[in-house]
């Protein structure tokens, strides 16, 4: 009995529609999130992630509605990230039907937020989302960025992951800004470094372009793989990815 | 769902996290579902589902505030079915030990809920289970995976058969260590995983439970 590798489609949502850009720019419409969520559920997705990419106050209500409608018809775990700034935001998302929330910039701005969320709802609802970039002068060679990679911090990505786990993060969503949108494969070096320091599950994100890109991410130590555009474009189905993983000896559902 | 002949299930609303999915999944499984903390409604339903997410101590505090132990006790004494899910299963044991804090549970079953011994926690994702042949919950569900998310679990089963109930049926899983994934013990059943988050296999398991509410 071993836990299976999870395949997670990520739906970037803005104003109630799914969007996905290359390197987070030139967002382009890709459909109704609830409809897409349902399609992925039927294809065998193990979890779903919604990322609210234009989390303005006006669009917030739309996101809660999308979350609720999705949770009513899709019986797999649902994570929602983007613009989560407070314990109240988390309460509202969980109340709308989310099972987990992704926290990113707000935790960088105020790390104690992680402990506040974990204390109230448990570590299992708290996903630390990291947008990681190579470069900078930190010791691992990987730095934390914010605003979808546009703003660099001085924080070492591995140090931040360690601290976040200590503060109560129950899972790491590790997104490589360098790989994101390139379709050249996951950053396996980053994944294996994260696996070494992490006592919580690691989700690999950024760079998937073909089915063969997924098994190396698992081999590098990821517990789950996340992708967006390869699924939205119809280039790959969830089943294609699972078939490739099975072929490479990875356990899937 | 309206269906006059559908078994009536109350999902106990005592302030525990996300319960919408449990309501919708039970409806998909053929139940007539009500989400309420009302004691009379919880007592008279054909089945009572006790959800639970978060810390054992926080769940117990909220259950105690609602005097839910009494609802569970009285239902079980009358042979009326109860299903606990995740921490809603854990609190059925005598004690929960989390981060050094030892909390008294509802005590329907002997034993303690303790941390799993694994390099990666929480145990998060889809795992297989080892269910006994005569399981009602897992009927037709061999080789399926279910969605788990937890760091603590009951890891020993010490309760023997208590007349007039049949032998407790205990289902196991493993993450670092063997732990109890589900129990069927007379009117009280429970799963450590989330059937409401386990896709079609989870709906099927809930349908098995809902089907048992009016047949015996």
UniProtKB/TrEMBL annotation, chain A:
Keywords from the named record: Amino-acid biosynthesis, Cytoplasm, Histidine biosynthesis, Lyase
Cellular component aspect of the GO annotation: cytoplasm
Location relative to the cell: Cytoplasm
Organism domain of life: Bacteria
Any single biological process term in GO: L-histidine biosynthetic process
Protein's pathway: Amino-acid biosynthesis; L-histidine biosynthesis; L-histidine from 5-phospho-alpha-D-ribose 1-diphosphate: step 5/9
MF term (GO), any: imidazoleglycerol-phosphate synthase activity
Major place of residence: cytoplasm
EC number(s) given by UniProt: 4.3.2.10
CDD domains cross-referenced by the UniProt entry: HisF
Secreted is among the record's keywords: no
InterPro entries referenced in this protein's UniProt entry, alphabetically: Aldolase_TIM, His_biosynth, HisF, IGPS_HisA/HisF, RibuloseP-bd_barrel
Top EC class, one word: lyase
Name of one Pfam family that matches: His_biosynth
Active site: 12, 131
Keyword Cytoplasm in record: yes
Reaction it catalyzes: 5-[(5-phospho-1-deoxy-D-ribulos-1-ylimino)methylamino]-1-(5-phospho-beta-D-ribosyl)imidazole-4-carboxamide + L-glutamine = D-erythro-1-(imidazol-4-yl)glycerol 3-phosphate + 5-amino-1-(5-phospho-beta-D-ribosyl)imidazole-4-carboxamide + L-glutamate + H(+)
NCBIfam families hit by this protein: hisF (TIGR00735)
Subunit field text: Heterodimer of HisH and HisF.
UniProt record similarity statement: Belongs to the HisA/HisF family.
Its biological purpose: IGPS catalyzes the conversion of PRFAR and glutamine to IGP, AICAR and glutamate. The HisF subunit catalyzes the cyclization activity that produces IGP and AICAR from PRFAR using the ammonia provided by the HisH subunit.
Protein name: Imidazole glycerol phosphate synthase subunit HisF
Originating organism: Mycetocola miduiensis
GN (gene name): hisF
Automatic annotation (TrEMBL), chain B:
GO biological process: L-histidine biosynthetic process
Primary site of residence: cytoplasm
Residues annotated as catalytic: 86 (nucleophile), 194, 196
PROSITE patterns assigned: GATASE_TYPE_1
Swiss-Prot/TrEMBL catalytic activity: 5-[(5-phospho-1-deoxy-D-ribulos-1-ylimino)methylamino]-1-(5-phospho-beta-D-ribosyl)imidazole-4-carboxamide + L-glutamine = D-erythro-1-(imidazol-4-yl)glycerol 3-phosphate + 5-amino-1-(5-phospho-beta-D-ribosyl)imidazole-4-carboxamide + L-glutamate + H(+); L-glutamine + H2O = L-glutamate + NH4(+)
Signal sequence annotation: none
Gene3D superfamilies assigned: 3.40.50.880
One Pfam family this sequence matches: GATase
SUPFAM superfamilies xref list: Class I glutamine amidotransferase-like
Pathway annotation: Amino-acid biosynthesis; L-histidine biosynthesis; L-histidine from 5-phospho-alpha-D-ribose 1-diphosphate: step 5/9
Glutamine amidotransferase domain sequence ranges: 10-209
GO cellular component, one term: cytoplasm
Protein keywords: Amino-acid biosynthesis, Cytoplasm, Glutamine amidotransferase, Histidine biosynthesis, Hydrolase, Lyase
GO molecular function, one term: lyase activity
Protein EC: 4.3.2.10, 3.5.1.2
Subcellular location: Cytoplasm
InterPro entries: Class_I_gatase-like, GATASE, Imidazole-glycPsynth_HisH
Keyword Zinc part of the UniProt annotation: no
Biological role stated in the UniProt entry: IGPS catalyzes the conversion of PRFAR and glutamine to IGP, AICAR and glutamate. The HisH subunit catalyzes the hydrolysis of glutamine to glutamate and ammonia as part of the synthesis of IGP and AICAR. The resulting ammonia molecule is channeled to the active site of HisF.
Quaternary data: Heterodimer of HisH and HisF.
Protein name per Swiss-Prot or TrEMBL: Imidazole glycerol phosphate synthase subunit HisH
Origin organism lineage: Bacteria, Bacillati, Actinomycetota, Actinomycetes, Micrococcales
Originating gene: hisH
């Amino acid at each position: 009995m071993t836990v299976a590798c999870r395949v997670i489609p990520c739906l970037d949502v803005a104003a109630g529609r799914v969007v996905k850009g290359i390197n987070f720019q030139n967002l382009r419409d890709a459909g109704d999130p609830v409809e897409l969520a349902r399609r992925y559920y039927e294809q065998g997705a193990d979890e779903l992630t919604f990322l609210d990419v234009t989390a303005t106050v006006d669009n917030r209500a739309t996101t809660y509605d999308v979350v609720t409608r999705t949770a009513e018809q899709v019986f797999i775990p649902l994570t929602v990230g983007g613009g989560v700034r407070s314990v109240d935001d988390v309460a509202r998302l969980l109340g709308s039907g989310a099972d987990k929330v992704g926290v990113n910039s707000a935790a960088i701005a105020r790390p104690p937020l992680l402990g506040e969320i974990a204390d109230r709802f448990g570590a299992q609802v708290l996903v630390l989302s990291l947008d990681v970039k190579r470069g900078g002068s930190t010791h691992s060679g990987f730095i934390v960025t914010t605003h979808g990679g546009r703003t660099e911090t001085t924080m070492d990505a591995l140090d931040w992951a360690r601290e976040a786990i200590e503060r109560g993060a129950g899972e790491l969503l590790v997104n490589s800004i360098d790989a994101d949108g390139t379709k050249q494969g996951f950053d396996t070096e980053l994944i294996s470094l994260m696996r070494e320091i992490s006592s919580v599950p690691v989700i690999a994100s950024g760079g998937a372009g073909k089915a063969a890109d997924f098994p190396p991410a698992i081999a590098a130590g990821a517990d789950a793989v996340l992708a967006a555009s390869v699924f939205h474009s119809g280039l790959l189905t969830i089943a294609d990815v699972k078939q490739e993983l099975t072929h490479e000896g990875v356990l899937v559902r | 769902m309206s269906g006059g002949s559908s078994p009536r299930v109350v999902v106990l609303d005592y302030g525990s996290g996300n319960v919408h999915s449990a309501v919708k999944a039970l409806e998909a499984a053929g139940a007539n579902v009500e989400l309420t903390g009302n004691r009379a409604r919880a007592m008279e339903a054909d089945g009572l589902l006790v959800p639970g997410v978060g810390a054992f101590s926080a769940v117990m505090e909220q259950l105690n505030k609602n005097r839910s132990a009494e609802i569970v006790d009285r239902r079980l004494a009358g042979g009326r079915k109860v299903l606990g899910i995740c921490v809603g299963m854990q609190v059925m044991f005598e004690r929960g030990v989390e981060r050094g804090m030892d909390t008294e549970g509802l005590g329907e079953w002997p034993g303690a809920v303790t941390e799993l011994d694994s390099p990666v926690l929480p145990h998060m994702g889809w795992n297989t289970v080892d269910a006994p042949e005569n399981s009602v919950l897992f009927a037709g569900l061999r080789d399926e995976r279910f969605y788990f998310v937890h760091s603590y679990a009951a890891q020993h089963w010490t309760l023997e058969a208590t007349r007039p109930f049949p032998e407790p049926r205990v289902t196991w899983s493993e993450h670092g260590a063997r732990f109890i994934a589900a129990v069927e013990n007379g009117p009280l059943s429970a799963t450590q995983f989330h059937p409401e988050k386990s896709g079609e296999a989870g709906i099927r398991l809930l349908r098995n439970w809902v089907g048992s509410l009016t047949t015996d």
